[in-house]
């Protein structure tokens, strides 16, 4: 079983990355339901990833403060997923209904506030309501980690267990209304999508599919969440607040060998649901252009930190070289490489002479250019001109120059390759 738990640790870590990476470009569209769906899914994967590592093969209370935070996130996520699905399908219904499309900034701001209240307000409210029926602090299960300890009373079904089912039923109603509105106004639908910025036709239907899949899975699982506790455990009557919270600071620890099959199935279903939601979201939106760009950027950043270059970067470099070569007049041409060799300086006097040996290789031609030295110029000249080593230097007639007027370089031990015997041969 620890090997199976290790597999889950790997998948939950991958699920966290898949859910959090596309968040940046989804924030640009201000789709609150989609963004909060990614945030809650990433938080759920992160919590179960940490729990699967800390409590791998044990049920020891290593981190009580972490468990206090983890169980609150688990309680919120159970309601946040159907709430985000409701927010998404509700917005899509408004887009498909021309009479309900919001155009002013005030209307858009109002709709955003309503979406935030649905996707954040309801889960936070669920955290507070669960504390009313919490029998003790939390439970710890081997390999699973922390879990909330909800007391099985009739009040728990009203405050905790029934919320996901109610929200999923409302989402299903909005889904049916969305399909009905689309069938009635099929010709106007593309114009409505065009009028709504940051939303394309394909993205609209991907959101519809995501919301539909969400409530299709939520309804049966939420129904089991309501019926299951009543079947496999005894329902205790609600007496009072003091009776329910007596000895609240207790922590129950359960090794895996003591778990019955129904409890083990429930725990595994709960934590694998987070991974399933992450991969479902990646299946709908992970292959879009924006998502692939973000995933490539993440892969490039990680490989650069490890000292490697990604395959996409090397292909981009080669593609740019091919494009630049194809754009030249001569068709395909080889690149030009210029190599420079600088001799080491022996003393301070050598710094006044330029001993730069330049070799230019152009395609298959090898052009050797002799170095330029300021000491070979005449001292009487008041101005100097720099001649490009690539340009052709005209030959000066010998009658103009006087062999005796040429000053020999005074640099000691100058190599003959730099200062030849006849200066006229280099002009």
TrEMBL record:
It holds the Pfam family STE3. The keyword Transmembrane helix applies. Residues 378-388 have a biased composition (Low complexity). It is found in: Membrane. It is a multi-pass membrane protein. The chain crosses the membrane at residues 6-25, 37-57, 69-93, 113-134, 163-183, 204-227, 269-288. Keywords: G-protein coupled receptor, Membrane, Pheromone response, Receptor, Transducer, Transmembrane, Transmembrane helix. Residues 392-405 have a biased composition (Basic and acidic residues). GO terms for molecular function: mating-type alpha-factor pheromone receptor activity. Residues 372-427 are annotated as: Disordered. It comes from the Eukaryota. One of its GO terms (cellular component) is plasma membrane. Its main location: membrane. Belongs to the G-protein coupled receptor 4 family. This is STE3-domain-containing protein. It comes from Thelephora terrestris.
